[in-house]
Specification:
148 residues; mainly alpha; three-stranded antiparallel sheet
Length: 148
Amino acid sequence: MRKIELPSEALAEELRDHLQDKRFTVANYDKAHRTLQFPDNMNPSQWVSLRSTVEKWTSGRNLEAVESLKLQYLRPDAKQERASPIPGPSQKELKAEATKKTENLTPDKAEERYRYLQSIPISELSDAEIAERLALAGRPSEKTKAPK
């Protein structure tokens, strides 16, 4: 059920009367929780119209309309769709590709590329770039090599 929660019983009854005057049907009024409940089968345009009416009604009453989240279980077939992600390269393939890509870089180019990849937040890097960043981090740098 879709619902509208109000801070007091008096406001809930006033809104219910207002909505009925505007030809909206309130399916249920729960006094204990001060909520007006509407059927889930309302089409989206009806719900948007109802929300708009409620927001206009709240404007002169020092009230604010606040959206809330509702968590519910997924349909069984939706779980299966999410459980099988799009196949991509494996971690071994990514690592091998990154190593191959970084082997031919000069020490200066490797350090430059590493700094670039390090400047980007890890959450914005692709899996291949993360593997490349790790491969570059594992390379010995020219500065750490002891002179011969």
